[in-house]
Amino acid sequence: MRIGELAQRTGTTPKAIRLYESRGLLGTVARAGSYRHYGEADVARVLLIRQAQALGFRLSELDGLPHIDTTAGWERMAQLVAGRRAAVAQELARLSALDTQLAGLEAELHTCDTLAVPVVPEACAAPSTLAVALPAHNPAQFGAATAGGAARFAPT
After folding, report:
1. Which of these, 41, 37, 47, lies nearest to 16 by C-alpha position?
2. What is the C-alpha separation between 91 and 69, in angstroms, rounded?
3. Could you give the angle at which helices 40-54 and 14-22 cross, rounded to 10 degrees?
4. Up-side HSE of residue 35: CA atoms within 13 Å toward CB?
5. What pTM value is reported for the model?
6. Which one-letter DSSP state was computed for residue 29?
7. Quick check: helix, strand or coil at residue 17?
8. Is residue 46 within 8 Å of residue 14, measured between CB atoms?
9. For residue 30, what is the enclosing H or E element?
10. pLDDT by residue (tens digit) across 73-103?
11. Which residues contact 112 (CB under 8 A, 6 or more apart)?
């Protein structure tokens, strides 16, 4: 098949296929005169490249892909996948910590709203430290607050 058909079957463009070939990701492509000739193995390889890119791999990480059907090729790809999974796990941990911080801030904002106090770090302690930080609610202690508390968020 020619490059246009390969592009159509794999959901990519002829330009992308030429890039994959120039980077050595397709191995040696057969030619008939000046035309490239692709087979089913090339379809599978382009689909694999596209899947890898969708999973976050860069083309530069896929060097050696033409040798994937060897033991060393499978090992290399397995190492790439394991590395990507480790990076995903690290990102998930970072996002989980961020979510915890956002939940704490959200709780603090709800506490401030419930107490109708101005937003100052000492006034809006997290619920677990609220009794220690604010033994009694005294509006004069925090300045005048308007009904509904809209003035709390006004810049000073």
Report:
1. 47
2. 31
3. 90
4. 9
5. 0.60
6. P
7. helix
8. no
9. strand 30-32
10. 888 888 989 999 999 999 999 999 999 999 9
11. 118, 119, 123, 124, 149, 152
